[in-house]
Amino acid sequence: MPPEVMIMNSLTRKRPVNCGISRLSVKGDATLMYLRGHIYNGPVYEMSILRPERAQGHLACVTSVLEYREFPIKVAFYYVLFSAMLAYVIYSSSRLILGTMFPSFGSGNLGLLGFGILAAVLTLLPAGVLADHTRYLYVISTLGALAPLLLGMAIVFAGSPGPDTPTIETSFTILLFSGAAFSLVSWCVQLNKTVVARFRGRVAASFLAVSLVIFGVYSALDSAGFSLYLMHMPIPEIITIAAVLTRLAFRPWRWSLHKLAVKGEARSYFIPTLLVMAAYILWYFGTQLSIKEVFRLAVDPSYVSLGQYSGLSLYEPGFMAVGVVFAGLIADTKGRKTALTFGVLLLGLLSIFGSLAYYNAEDGSAYLSAAPLLISERFVEGFLLGLMLLLIWAELGSPNTKGRRIAAMWIFFIGYIALLLAVSLGVWFGIDWYAPDWVRRAGIQFAILLTLVTLYWSAPLPEILGKELEMEDLSLDFDEKLVRQTAEAFVGAEDLKSIRSQLDILGSTEELSDKDMDEILGPDFDKTLPLGGIPGVGSKMEQRLREAGYESAAQLAGETPQRLSEKVKGLTPAKAEKILEGARVAVKKALKSKSKKEGGRG
User: Fold this and answer.
1) pLDDT top residue among 526 and 133
2) Contact criterion met (CB below 8 Å) for 435 and 423
3) Strand pairing partners for 41?
C-alpha cells in the first residue's frame, strides 16, 4: 500500500475493507473513515490525497460532528430564542391592521403595512442569495433583528407623531419587514445546516409555537388594558433585544455549517402546496360567507367573527401553536410526506364536516357552534403552517441554494397572506378586493375536490426523513503535484467511477492485506491479472488495450463500456461490455483465491 491515503466518494458496501493505514466502511449513505483514531462521518464528493503523517488529526478539525442520536437541546434553545423576533413582527403587523401602531395615521396604518409587505418581497431574494454565500448567518440574523428594534425604541422615546412624521414611521415599517426578511432567511438556512432532519421539525415547531404564544400574551395584555408601552417603556422591543442578544451566549461563530441535503427537487412539493393553499382559501371564505348568510337570514347582527362569537379570540394563537407542534412531531417521526398527507386529510375533513357547525333552525334562528369550528380551523392552520413555512423547501435539492429556495417560497406565501388580508379587510388597492358570491355557493365543494387531488398528487413525492446526506467539501493540506502524480499512477486518466468500481470488486472478500492492495493498485497489475487472461481478449485486442493505456484486468474492471469503446479503436460498446464483465469476474476470482490461501495459511 502506498503511503498516501485515498478518500473516496461514498459507496454502498456490506463489509469494511482493511487497507492497512485506513479503514473504510459505509453504513447506508454515510461514510465512516478511521484515520489513526480520527473519525470523519459523512459522504465525500471529491477524491483527496494526503500523506498519513499530514492526515494525523487533520480530518477531525474539518467539521464538527452533528447530533444524530439525541435531541440537540442547547442548539434548539438557541433557535427558539429568536421566536421573540417573529412574535414582535406578528404583533406589529396586527397593530398596523388594527390601526393602533401609529394612532395619528388612522387608516394610513394599512398603507404602511402595504409598504412593509412590499419591502419584504423585494428583500427576500437578496437575503436568500446572501445567506447562500456566507457562513456568518448568525451575524445577519442578529443585525437584521436589532436594526428595526432600535429604531422602534427611538420612536417610542421620541413619541409619534413627531417632527419627522411620517418619514420615521414609514422608515420603521420598511426596516421592520426588510430586516425580518434578512434575519429569518438567515435563521432558516442556519437551522438547515446545523440540525439534522430527524430533529429539525421539532426545533422549527418550537420556534413557531413559542412565537405564537408570545404574540398571544402581547394581545391578551392589550385586551386587558395593560399598555406594553407604559411610561415610554417599549417592553416588546426590550424583550426581543434581550432574547436576540442572549443567543450569542451560545457562541454560534464556533459552529460548523454542514451541507445537509436530500436528493430531489423542492418544486415537486410546490404543486401539492399550491393546491392545499387554494383549498384552504376557498374553504375559509366559503365558510365565512355561508355563516354570514345564515345570520343575515335570521336577521341576527350578533356575528362578527368566530373568535368574537365564541369568546375565544384571545386563545386563537394557542390553538395554532398546538397544530404547529403536532406538525413538527409528525414531520420528525413519520416524515414530511406523511405529515403533508395528514395535513391535507385534516383540511379535507374540516371542509366536509365544517358545514355541520352552522345552519338556520326551523324557526329561522341562526345556529352556530363557533368554538369547535374555530378550534379546528386554527389547529389545521397551525399544522399546515408548521409544515410548510420552515421545512421542505431548504431540505430538498442542492445545499448551495437553500436560501434562494426559501426566499422564493416565502415570496409566494407573502402574496398569499396579502391576498387573504386584502379580501378579509376589504382593502381597496387599485381594485376592490372581495370574495365573489360563487365562493359561498361552491367554494367548500371545490375545496373538498382540491384536497382529493392533492392526496393523489402527493403519492409520488420524495421522502425527506432518512434520506438526508451530509455533503462535505474537504479542505485538506496536500501537495497538488503529489495529487496529480498519484492519480496518474493509480487510475491514469480515469475519474472516480473507476475507483468506485474497483472498490465494489473488493467487496467480494472480507479482508484485504496490504499485499493484496499492492497487487491491485501497485505496479504489478500486468503480472497478477494480465489482459490476456480476460475471456474474449486476443493478442490483437490486448495490444489495442495497451495502446489505450490499460495494463491489467483490475484496471479495466473500473471502466464503463461507453468510455472503453471511445478509448479503444474499433471496439463497440457491446464488445466492451463483455470484456469488462470478463475482467471483473477475473478480478473477483483472484481475490477469492487469495482469501482462501490466506485462510489456509492461518
Assistant:
1) 133
2) yes
3) 32
- Of the chain, the percentage scoring pLDDT greater than 70 comes to 76
Q: Exposure of 159 by Cβ count < 10 A (0-12 exposed, 13-18 middle, 19+ buried)? A: exposed
Residue 128, C-alpha cell as written in the block: 436568500
Q: For residue range 99-137, what is the model confidence (pLDDT) as tens digits?
A: 888 888 888 888 899 999 999 999 999 999 999 999 999
378-387: b (≥16 Cβ within 10 Å) or e: bbbbbbbbbb
Name 583's Cβ contacts closer than 8 Å, sequence gap at least 6: 529, 534, 553, 554, 556, 557
Domain ranges of the chain: 5-62+479-601, 72-257, 261-398+437-463
Q: Kind and range of the H or E element at 421?
A: helix 402-425
- What confidence category does residue 463 fall into, taking pLDDT thresholds of 50, 70 and 90? confident
What is the chain's length? 602
* pLDDT of 481: 55
Closest listed residue to residue 232, CA positions, set 159, 146, 152, 172? 159
97 three-state secondary structure: helix
Q: For strand 366-368 and strand 30-35, is the pairing parallel, antiparallel, or unpaired?
A: unpaired
Fold of 72-257: Growth Hormone; Chain: A; (1.20.1250)
Q: Is 232 left (phi over 0), alpha (psi -120 to 50) or beta?
A: left
Give the pTM: 0.69
Bridge-partner residues for 22, per DSSP?
19, 35
Which residues on neighbouring strands pair with residue 50, listed in sequence order? 5
Q: Residues 99, 106: contact at Cβ < 8 Å?
A: yes
Predicted pLDDT of residue 48? 35
Q: Is 303 helix (H, G, I), strand (E, B) or coil?
A: coil
Q: What is the pLDDT of residue 527?
A: 53
Is the pLDDT confidence value at 439 over 70?
yes
